[in-house]
Amino acid sequence: xxxxxxxxxxxxxxxxxxxxxxxxxxxxxxxxxxxxxxxxxxxxxxxxxxxxxxxxxxxxxxxxxxxxxxxxxxxxxxxxxxxxxxxxxxxxxxxxxxxxxxxxxxxxxxxxxxxxxxxxxxxxxxxxxxxxxxxxxxxxxxxxxxxxxxxxxxxxxxxxxxxxxxxxxxxxxxxxxxxxxxxxxxxxxxxxxxxxxxxxxxxxxxxxxxxxxxxxxxxxxxxxxxxxxxxxxxxxxxxxxxxxxxxxxxxxxxxxxxxxxxxxxxxxxxxxxxxxxxxxxxxxxxxxxxxxxxxxxxxxxxxxxxxxxxxxxxxxxxxxxxxxxxxxxxxxxxxxxxxxxxxxxxxxxxxxxxxxxxxxxxxxxxxxxxxxxxxxxxxxxxxxxxxxxxxxxxxxxxxxxxxxxxxxxxxxxxxxxxxxxxxxxxxxxxxxxxxxxxxxxxxxxxxxxxxxxxxxxxxxxxxxxxxxxxxxxxxxxxxxxxxxxxxxxxxxxxxxxxxxxxxxxxxxxx
Length: 510
Description:
Elements (H helix, E strand, L loop, with lengths): L15 E5 L6 E6 L3 H20 L1 H18 L1 H12 L3 H26 L3 E3 L10 E8 L2 E5 L5 H5 L3 H6 L3 E5 L6 H12 L7 E3 L4 H10 L2 E5 L2 H12 L5 E4 L4 E5 L5 H13 L9 E7 H16 L20 H16 L3 E4 L14 E4 L6 H4 L6 E7 L2 H9 L3 E2 L1 E5 L3 H8 L6 E4 L16 E2 L2 E2 L6 H4 L2 E8 L15 H15 L6
Parallel strand pairs: 5-6, 5-8, 6-7, 8-9, 10-11, 10-16, 11-14, 13-14, 16-17
Antiparallel strand pairs: 1-2, 3-4, 4-20, 9-19, 12-13, 15-18
């Protein structure tokens, strides 16, 4: 189990934050709250360490990342125990969505970083640069600040640090004050893997700690709510610090009349309830064509009713864990009560638990519409509202009737039609006959449209965002003076005008 003693030395000042197990209500430990001066010191140390980390090159950085990959697999049980203790999630949610992701990500970025960030030779049609060497290169920004969420302390918090490190940056991770222990444990793992001192540091603390970090670093990666993301962007604007944002989602599922209802129902139950519904790309609302609506609802309700909820006691012990963040429990209950007050029916669940931990029963809602917050606002909990629609066009219109655009799914046996419909959904990622698994394909960019974020993680863009592009133009062979240089001469100017018409004056005219 990670402890406060594993925090960096500079992190020991300030007041403490108790870390609780949301499944039991018990306090696990206390971690420091770093102040502005503490953060300043961390960044100064990171700046001092970063040039040497960059200078060792991709091969050596890759070796460190591969050793970290092995450390994760060797210490999987310890990491899972830490994640489960501070999030209240199930063993399987920690294993499948966190350990497997981190292990894959270390290897992926170690392998792909050199290709994604290699110098790119360019060619130009402009005759003025003929014979010159044109190159685009990528250099690390310097110090990256990652402000992570509480729902996936390894995958969506620490996970963003891996490509930033692979690119040659130093990284300071500010984890959620609710779930800081996994980040501290990963700092231990990176040290064991041979990462140089101060290249990766953890800044435990609250919102003020995050604000101080934004003021100091060269790039900010934030994952969390849209409301907080706007504050991060506003703060970063004061120093013109670039940001990457993965924000809220209200991900729709569209079930067409020709869908495999059994598969769709199994997927709806799983991808709405896994990790207690606390997934940015969780299925949060469903639109089902009328011919299969009743059948779909019956199957989903049956599956959700059978889910076991409680404190995880190891593999296979429960299906749905606790609500990790205390205020989230109130939001979930508020959305359900609002829906019922406006005419929705609860087919299963619909109540908060009575135990010492923070639980909300897996819930299925029907007779819902867009006047209800459960269909328009991010719930981020184990609820699934299902709405009957007349046809695919109505489903598409309702799916796009949202300020969010993170992910969506379309379900149909006609995959060609499904893909056509998917291309019309206003979301950064859309699956046909699947959900969420695109996140495991690290080659695919993952990012939100509309109020769901800026930029992407994964793919080439997921590491290039942690770099600065630099253009190089090298003139190897040239005379003393080019024709366009001073002094201007009438004859030369007229010749250049003729050249312009020759090169660009042959465009198609209406």
